[in-house]
Design brief:
Shape: rod-shaped
Radius of gyration: 21 Å
Number of domains: 2
Order of helices and strands: HHH
Mean pLDDT: 92
Strand content: under 5%
Distance between the termini: 54 Å
Helix content: over 70%
Number of helices: 3
Low-confidence stretches: none
Number of strands: 0
């Protein structure tokens, strides 16, 4: 029983690494940026979006 548990745990490590890589890739390749949600809201002005950029540090290179 102990060998079975160790075997399953060792199989889980590459699986978790693979799932992490796939999730990172999907998030990285998704269109838009962190502010794209705000641009869809008509009540938020361009000045508000600029303030959010400064708060999030997106105005720095």
């Amino acid at each position: 029983m102990f060998k079975y548990i160790i075997k399953r745990l060792l199989q889980a490590i590459p699986l978790l690494i693979g799932v992490s890589i796939i999730a990172f890739s999907i998030m990285h390749l998704a269109p838009g940026g962190p502010l794209s949600v705000y641009t869809l809201n008509p009540s938020i002005t361009a000045q508000d979006i600029d303030k959010i950029k400064v708060i999030l540090g997106l105005d720095q290179p």
